[in-house]
Design a protein that fits this description.
This protein has 358 residues and is mainly α. Helices cover 74% and strands 0% of the residues. The protein has eleven helices and no strands. Helix 5 packs antiparallel against helix 6 and helix 5 crosses helix 7. The two termini are 29 Å apart.
Length: 358
Amino acid sequence: MTPETYAHVSNLLIPTATVIYALAMVSHAMEWALGRAAVARKTAPAEQAEAQVLVSSAATANSATVSAGVGTTTGVGTATAVGTTSAAGGSGASSTSGAAGAATERLDAASRIGLLLTWMGFVFHLGGVVTRGLAAGRVPWGNMYEFSITASLAVAIVYLIFVQRYKLQWLGLGVTLVVASVLGLASLALYTPAGPLVPALHSYWLVLHVSAAATSGGGFTVGGLISVLYLLKARAERRVLEGGTMSTALRRLPSAESMDGTAYKVLAFSFPLWTFAVLVAGPIWAQYAWGRYWGWDPKEVWSLVTWVVYAAYLHARATAGWRGRRAATIAIVGWFVFLFNFVGVNLLVSGMHSYAGV
């Protein structure tokens, strides 16, 4: 196949992947909509049992010995009455109506369809990135369009890996929304025909620098989305303790404590990669391309700001014991700083990185 053919195939695969991700997003949106409509109606004893389990879980978490900010949480979630039906809530489960059972089946079906469509979108997405690289005869991240499709692929990869390990399919709506939006923006506003790299980008440090930045960016996105859902779940759990109810959609999420631990694991995985990208590979590449390791270019400054925010997040968890809402807030701030570094700096600020988009 000729480079022109590869470019044509890539230009077909990327929009196709965008549509499939959008369908996955719709499926996950239906899952959440069904969950909000099907608020679990429990008997008073069952609601009291749920509150008692939440209180017991919180007391256990506060008294347990916690190491490295992860504590005793697991990636999948604890068996609280919020995530799964416990023995204390068994009497409530026995009184669940047939309509609620049917609603749960629809929720499960929407979740499975959404995950299946995400895998399909990922296959087309991967094919589009690979054929773009073959069309250009190089790694496919030499401009803003290419970095967008590659970075969004990294988001999908991180999500699908953690889905297998930590059962994160409940994160599908946020992930597919982000990936479909980035691909749509790239196709409509950022598209650049495949071509050779500018001289400054001819270095194997480009491969190391951008691949590490894209992978860590995928982790920051997943961790940020988990932190957003953590705040929603924690708020719902507090309402249950006060005698309120929780929507079925939120009830299907792991416990807030577990989500906090999972976000920490994702961000602890991503931070060393970002450190390598912006403090090791990036400066070495800058020395090769521009004759200096660090020049306080806007991109370099905001990459450093992103590093500082996530370093503060990990430091606060390890030394001050910050968990829960405070840690989630820092993680969300870090994610928005990263997004501004990825989009805002490239599109709004002129600098030495502007031509590359990375």
